[in-house]
Write a structure and sequence with these properties.
Elements: E1 2-7, E2 10-13, E3 18-26, E4 31-39, E5 45-51, E6 57-59, E7 67-72, E8 77-82, E9 91-100, E10 105-109, E11 113-118
Parallel strand pairs: 2-11
Antiparallel strand pairs: 1-3, 3-8, 4-5, 4-9, 5-6, 7-8, 9-10, 9-11
Length: about 120
């Protein structure tokens, strides 16, 4: 099992920045992709950004240029730098990871961290 613990959420004014962190622990051998999803009230959970163990990153189209994902494989951590935040970025942000067992993928989620952007 892999445990993911997020930190860095909070309340920020529109135009401000936040940096989210997520640390993985447990059976982290074979950890592959890591990333972030978010879920606003009453909406589905949507992709924010994911990054492979090799550093290849993919973003939701509407977040490119404002959000930057990075990863520290030595620390088994993934980060999300969020700039120029907007009220519509308000959501619970979930850390995500997957691992390859040799025959199938396993998926893991953190408990979520609240990000609130005030206008």
């Amino acid at each position: 099992q892999v445990q993911l613990v997020e930190s860095g959420g909070g309340l920020v004014q529109a135009g401000g920045s936040l940096r989210l962190s997520c640390a993985a622990s447990g059976s982290i051998f074979g950890l592959n992709g890591m990333g972030w999803y978010r879920q606003a009230p009453g909406k589905q959970r949507d992709l924010v950004a994911v990054i492979s163990s090799g550093g290849n990153a993919n973003y939701a189209d509407n977040l490119k240029g404002r959000f930057t994902i990075s990863r520290d494989n030595a620390e088994n951590a993934v980060y999300l730098q969020m700039n120029s935040l907007k009220p519509e970025d308000t959501a619970v942000y979930y850390c995500y990871a997957n691992s390859w067992t040799g025959s199938n993928y396993l998926y893991y989620w953190g408990q979520g961290t609240q990000v609130t952007v005030s206008s």
